[in-house]
Design brief:
This protein is mainly alpha-helical and 126 residues long. The protein has helices at 7-13, 26-35, 52-67, 72-81, 83-86, 94-120; strands at 5-6, 42-44, 47-50. The chain folds into two domains: 1-84, Multidrug-efflux Transporter Regulator, Chain: A, Domain 2 (Orthogonal Bundle), CATH 1.10.1660.10; 87-126, no CATH class.
């Protein structure tokens, strides 16, 4: 069974959280949902849930909008034409940049966990 992620969890994963109140900014995801046909949450009891594949698409959309400064129309055009698939193998393609950044973030998280384990031992690393 595919794991489903609710909209608040997704907001936290994407770091779409109000800096003062620490509340998830779900409205941003709902806004993107209206603008990108690729975002199709499952609605269960009137709540939005996203598959792992959906989360990856939304991460890519956020990266292109926020990190690369591409407009909504530009991102839509890229997704519609599947341009982002064309540059998968290129060293300097947008998708390559996205995955490089993603791997760097995950590597840093793993290194932090290793440091904690070394410092406190496995049982106290949480």
């Amino acid at each position: 069974m595919n794991k489903l992620i609710n909209i608040s969890e997704l907001s936290k994963i994407l770091k779409l959280v109000d800096s003062k109140t620490k509340k998830p900014q779900n409205h941003i995801i709902r806004f993107w949902e209206k603008n990108f046909k690729e975002i199709k949450p499952k609605k269960i009891n009137n709540r939005r849930y996203y598959t792992v594949q959906q989360v990856e698409i939304i991460k890519m959309i956020k990266y292109l909008l926020k990190n690369k400064g591409i407009t909504i129309a530009g991102v839509k055009d890229m997704l519609n034409k599947n341009i982002y698939k064309l540059d998968e193998n290129g060293d300097h393609g947008l998708k390559t940049e996205y995955y490089k950044e993603s791997i760097q973030i995950k590597s840093k998280q793993i290194l932090e966990k290793i440091k904690k384990i070394k410092k406190y031992g496995k049982k106290n690393s949480h």
